[in-house]
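Title: Comparing notes on inverse folding

I've been comparing how different people in this forum approach sequence design from structure. To keep things fair, I'm posting one structure and asking everyone to reply with a full sequence. Here's the target:
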């Protein structure tokens, strides 16, 4: 019977506890999680003194299933285990033949298959055999709307605090590019004090990543929710002067997500704070605040029409039916429609 599928956090916990599986097939669109798991295995499975004889790294374009199987069937030398890592395994043409080994893997070998940007056919033998004898992990892209929650969780794992404004600023600016996000967060972590509470703030982000703590999509949403016309226009003017840091292609999905969620709120049977949290799948009450305010300032029909307006604006920003208007003008026009 196939095992329950593993989570990224669960896999990492087991590796750090030195609970290794004989086979890891890491596949999917998001390379960050696969790289982190592989790096952790490279750190934990073997000591530095054991790697000369017991670490084998193969590349998909230069190898085949028979070579991988032969490497995996070797016994370790002066070590409890050996580690075999296959990078870019999506380029192994006969990869399904690995099922012959995966069905009965050696307990003294840890075989890691990095199958990036694609997924194995779960109906075929290699995927099913891996699920039964080892770890079959699909690394999925995180949707944009889930990025703030991911950033919070990611920082909590490192015992570092971060507030909701900071997470939204990072999510809006970096999207769901987790590798880039990790690099930016590493810059911030270095600046944190060695002793005492560690917390990332909007001020740190503004000073070290270049995102304004006052003029960003997080603050724009708050201005729209409260119908603060002056603040919204000031932010739009800032965006116009700093187009590279604040492209309309980043702002529009943020607006679309907010008003789409706001429409869901109107169809929720329970419009209390807890009811809205449940309807939107939020974990924290602070995430609901702007929606509770938005429901007081916009009616359902207005929101319905605004969603259509945002779609039209998105098309215009890509040149559809728009021969001359700039992105700044298009955004200002949309903000006027939203608040009037």
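Reply #1:
Here's my take.
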């Amino acid at each position: 019977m196939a095992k329950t599928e593993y989570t990224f956090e669960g896999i990492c916990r087991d590796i750090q506890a030195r609970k290794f599986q004989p086979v890891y097939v890491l596949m999917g669109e998001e390379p960050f999680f696969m790289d982190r798991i592989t790096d952790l295995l490279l750190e934990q499975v073997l000591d530095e003194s054991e790697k000369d004889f017991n670490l084998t790294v193969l590349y998909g374009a230069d190898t085949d299933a028979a070579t991988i199987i032969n490497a995996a069937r070797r016994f370790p030398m002066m070590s409890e285990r050996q580690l075999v890592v296959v990078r870019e395994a999506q380029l192994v043409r006969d990869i399904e033949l690995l099922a012959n080994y995966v069905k009965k893997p050696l307990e003294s070998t840890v075989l890691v298959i990095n199958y990036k940007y694609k997924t194995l056919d779960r109906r075929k033998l290699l995927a099913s055999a891996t699920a039964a004898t080892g770890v079959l992990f699909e690394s999925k892209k995180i949707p944009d709307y889930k990025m703030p929650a991911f950033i919070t969780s990611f920082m909590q794992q490192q015992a570092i605090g971060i507030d909701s404004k900071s997470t939204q600023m990072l999510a809006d600016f970096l999207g769901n590019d987790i590798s880039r996000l990790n690099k930016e967060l590493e810059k911030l972590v270095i600046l944190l004090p060695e002793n005492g509470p560690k917390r990332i703030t909007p001020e740190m982000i503004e000073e070290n990543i270049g995102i304004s703590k006052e003029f960003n999509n997080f603050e724009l949403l708050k201005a729209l929710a409260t119908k603060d016309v002056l603040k919204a226009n000031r932010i739009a003017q800032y965006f116009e002067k700093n187009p590279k840091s604040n492209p309309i292609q980043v702002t529009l999905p943020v607006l679309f997500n907010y008003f789409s969620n706001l429409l869901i709120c109107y169809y929720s049977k329970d419009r209390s704070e807890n009811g809205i949290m449940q309807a939107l799948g939020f974990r924290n009450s602070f995430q609901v605040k702007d929606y509770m305010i938005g429901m007081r300032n916009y009616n359902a029909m207005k929101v319905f029409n605004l969603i259509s307006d945002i779609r039209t604006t998105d098309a215009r920003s890509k040149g559809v039916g728009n021969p001359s208007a700039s992105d700044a003008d298009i955004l200002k026009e949309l903000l006027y429609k939203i608040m009037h």
